[in-house]
Amino acid sequence: MCGRIVQKSGPMDYVERIFPNPRAIFSDPAGPRYNIPPGTRPLTMHRLAGDFQLDRLAWGYKPQGSKFLMSNARLDKIQANKWPWKMLTGHRILVPADGWYEWKPLDDSPKPPKQPYYIHAKDGAPLFFAALSAWRAGAEKDEAHGFAIVTNDAAGGVVDVHDRRPVALPADLAVHWMDPDFPAAQAVALLSDGLPEMAFTWHPVRLEVGNSKYQMPDAIDPI
């Protein structure tokens, strides 16, 4: 994790969860997306230029000189101030979502078939994934300026599906994470207070979800 996310809610549904009385109206022409993979541009929330923005940024960060596209940033490496995340703790964004997918092997064979599961908040509320971005004003929205979603391998994942999960911050903490004036060390400390496993529920979904081109609303329906 985190390999696929769902953004089916409207922009204002995400914004109002953090800012109950927003002063601006936000819209997005892309509409709901039910199967968003790395390498695309999901909707993000940030204050990297000072004012609050909804922006579509590249999911996946490839530092200069690296061969690898990093779609996730492990919490333990961020806390240890490891490369490349130590350069990005001042470039904090949120990725709003309604849920995400994980895949569980169906048997113990060398290449087992995998069953996709949809994971979301028990109360149906939007989630706010912490992420780090190399976004720069005026720069191309490409892999060199992309983002990675923070994952916590030590959190225990969702026990019977996967061994890790994204760090989803409660709305009150998400505001601080996104605040450029909030000290980086304190922001990193917030990552240990992501929503616990008990906040989520999950169910199996259709195998077609394995293909990221499958964008039908029934992608999240239980089977």
Present the secondary structure layout:
Layout: E1 4-7, H1 11-18, E2 33-36, E3 43-46, E4 53-56, E5 72-74, H2 75-79, E6 92-97, E7 99-105, E8 114-121, E9 127-133, E10 147-152, E11 165-166, H3 171-178, H4 184-190, E12 200-204
Parallel strand pairs: 5-10
Antiparallel strand pairs: 1-2, 1-7, 3-4, 3-6, 6-9, 7-8, 8-12, 9-10, 10-11
Describe the structure in your own words.
By secondary structure, the chain is of the alpha+beta class. The chain is built from 4 helices and 12 strands, in the order βαββββαββββββααβ. The strands form 2 sheets. Strands 3, 4, 5, 6, 9, 10 and 11 form a 7-stranded mixed beta sheet that branches. Strands 2-1-7-8-12 form a 5-stranded antiparallel beta sheet, with no helix packed on it. It is globular and about 50 Å long. The mean pLDDT is 91.
* Helical percentage: 10-25%
Rg estimate, integer Å: 17 Å
H and E string:
EHEEEEHEEEEEEHHE
Strand content: 25-35%
Q: How many DSSP helices?
A: 4
Q: Tell me how many strands there are.
A: 12
* Distance between the amino and carboxyl termini: 22 Å
> Strand pairing plus helix content: what structural class?
alpha+beta
Molecular shape: globular
- Low-confidence runs: none
Mean pLDDT: 91
Largest sheet, described in full? 7 strands, mixed
